[in-house]
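Page 42, continued from yesterday. The earlier attempt failed because a stray header line got pasted into the input along with the sequence. Redoing it now with the clean sequence only.
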Amino acid sequence: MARNRCDGLLAKVDFPLYTLQTLTNRHVIVAGGGGASNTGVANGFEIFELSHNGSKFVAEEVMRHETGPNVVMNLSVRNIQNRTYLTAGQESHCQLYKVNIRMVDAAEMRRGSFRAENGLVRRRRRTVSENDNISKMDNNCNTTEKRISFEMRPGDSVQTDFGEDPLQRVVSISPIGNLMATGGVDGLVRVWSFPQMQLLFELQGHTKELDDLDFSPCGSKLVSIGKDGFAHVWSSEAKAAPLLQLTCQPPNGTKFLFRRCKFAMVEDKPDQHRMFTVANPLSRSGKQRGLLQLWEPDSGVLQKSVVCNEALSALTVRDDGRFVGVGTMFSGSVDIYIAFSLQRVLHVKSAHRMFVTGLSFLPVRGYGPSITSRSEAALLSISVDNCLVVHALPERSTMPAWLAIILIIFVLFCTFCVCSYLGI
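This time it went through. Structure tokens are written below.
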């Protein structure tokens, strides 16, 4: 199934986007910026609330926070004992934010302003998709509907990468919320207590900078991949040698390097988990075709592998483990696959004008009420083209109940006629 690029445009911000995470079942945070140079392009993040108006998804900006000269390259979000924490990679440091969630009147949110953590009051701006419906909402402003509002309070900031040109490239908070892992250009995986952000130990195994890392659903394992071509599966509980060391296994013997990695629960089996990776060919000659691979993380056995149309830049898995999403490097396209079979069920060609920098499914097990829509899944994507886009996988068509009843009656009638004709 293919989709038009403009079908799911939710919002366009005024800075390049590098990372996104979901805060609730209907709130998403996007982050990025123009960097430390004085280009006039802001650095920071924005929070949007998503909804469905009956025909399409729409977005409304809830909050915007600017981070001064520090561009936000990576994020991780976790809800711990009814408290929400956000960690943001800013150059060589990791900044902790405490997210206060409160309920306010919907009319107040539409009319008023919100206060950023730095004390600056920024008026809420309407987004591309919201403008289509704002007049209808204003006509019904007498309602006492409540909405979720966010307040960001900065906490500790720690340096997580060291060397001549340090840069934190990835951060992940464990599902339990007691650990945080970071990786950067010095090639070390650092494990921290969370939310105290005290260094517990360093894991040495990669010889080049890290590209990605992720905790298993139970939090006992950690996978990391680096530009040295290896994926290491570690115990997250103590400093030790890797439990597994994996290399990409392409079908034609060409040299590939891992690009992204993700653990995921097995659908309807929360005590079991899978591991997904994407990899790109090392050689830049000829047509670049990426690989999406499914691994058994205990034994390191490659279970399935599919060849994609081009090199891949982003990977995500829905929180229930049912779907996998990938984004491409050159055309800015997005694909959705069924997790257990790696069967592609949606292809969105040229969803962005440039390479996809981040992906996230709308959760089905997250905080707060879910969005009601006629979609089996909804995948969010961002790029350095400044756009936030949603890609909806329509529900698979089923036969209406009335039609099924008519068919049953027709079959019974035909059977009766045949039996009568044959004298049975």
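Notes: Helices lie at 106-111, 134-139, 401-422.
Reminder to self: strip header lines before submitting.
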